[in-house]
Amino acid sequence: MTKKAIALLVGVPDPGTIDYLGEQYSFNAIHVDADLKWYRETLNHQLATLGDAFATVVLRSPELTTVAHITSTLNYLATQLGPGGLFVMMFCGHGFQAAPDSGKPHHGNDGDDPLDDAVDEVLAASDGGLVDDFFADLWTKLPDKARVVAIADTCSSDTILEGIMASRNVEPIINRPGGAAPSRLFISASMTSQKAREETHDGVTHGVLTRALSSSWHDGVTYQEWFEGAVDSLNDEPQNPRMRYVGPRPSMLGHKAFTA
C-alpha cells in the first residue's frame, strides 16, 4: 500500500573529515538528537490520523547515514508515496560549498540566471559528501501532484536540498508558483555563504533554525506564518534562514503545515 505521507529525518552529528573531489573538509561534532526528536514528535502528532498511511524513518547512526544508505532510502521512499502525497525530509548536521568537478553535469537554476550552478552545496554524510544535484533528480521521481517539504538545518543550506542555483534575491521568502511539478517547499537555516549555529537553552541544544521553528509552531499554522514567526525571533542572529516555494500553482505558502 502506498503512503499518503512519508517523513525521512536524518541526523549526522560528527562526520569528521570528508574528502570531496580531492579537497579535505573537517567538522566539529554537534548536537542533532533534540532536533530530530522535535520534528518526529511534531510530524507524528500532525499526521497521526493517517495511521498506517503515514511512515516516519529516522537515520541517525553512522552506518545508516552514509551517502549510499541515505540516497537508497530516499529513492525507495519515493516509490512508496501515493499520488498527491506529502514527502517530508529534514537534515540536521553539517553542510558546505565546494567547487564542482568541471566534467560533471549540473541541474538548472531558479530563473535568476541562465547559467548553471557554479558551486556544489553538499551535505556531510557520515562517510562523504551528498551533493545537491542528487535532489534535483529525486524530486522528479515523485508521483503526480506530490508535495515536498524539505528542511536543512546546516551551514550553506540555501538550495542544498534543491540542486538549483542560489538566488541573488536576499528576501527571506522566495515564492515561485507556476513551475514544473512537484510542489516543493524548502526551508534552510542559512544562505549559501553563511554558517549555521546551535544554541543551548535549559540544558537542551538545538540548531538555531530548529529552535526558532519550534518556538513559532502551533497547530493550524500555515507554512508562511510558521517561517515568518521563526525569522522574527532571529533578528540578532548572524544567519539568515530562507524559505522557497517552486512548483505548480497554487503556492504551498498558505497551506496548513504538515497536513496530508
In short, what is this structure?
It is built from 5 helices and 14 strands. α4 crosses α5. The strands form 4 sheets. Strands 4-1-5-9-11-14-10 form a 7-stranded mixed sheet, with helices on both faces. Strands 6-7-8 form a 3-stranded antiparallel sheet. A two-stranded antiparallel ribbon has the order 2-3.
Task: Name some characteristics of this structure.
260 residues; single chain; 14 strands; 21% helix; 7-stranded mixed β-sheet; alpha/beta; Rossmann fold; 3-stranded antiparallel β-sheet
Can you give a write-up of this model?
Helix 4 (208-216) packs across helix 5 (223-232). A seven-stranded mixed β-sheet has the order 4-1-5-9-11-14-10, sandwiched between helices. Strands 6-7-8 form a three-stranded antiparallel β-sheet. A two-stranded antiparallel ribbon has the order 2-3. It is globular and about 40 Å long. It starts with a strand and ends in a 13-residue tail after the last strand. Strand 7 and strand 8 form a beta hairpin. The model is unreliable at 102-116 (pLDDT under 50). The protein is an alpha/beta fold. It has one domain (3-247): Rossmann fold (3-Layer(aba) Sandwich). It has helices spanning 33-46, 67-80, 133-139, 208-216, 223-232, and strands spanning 3-11, 17-20, 23-26, 54-59, 81-92, 95-98, 120-124, 129-131, 147-153, 173-177, 183-188, 198-201, 204-207, 242-247.
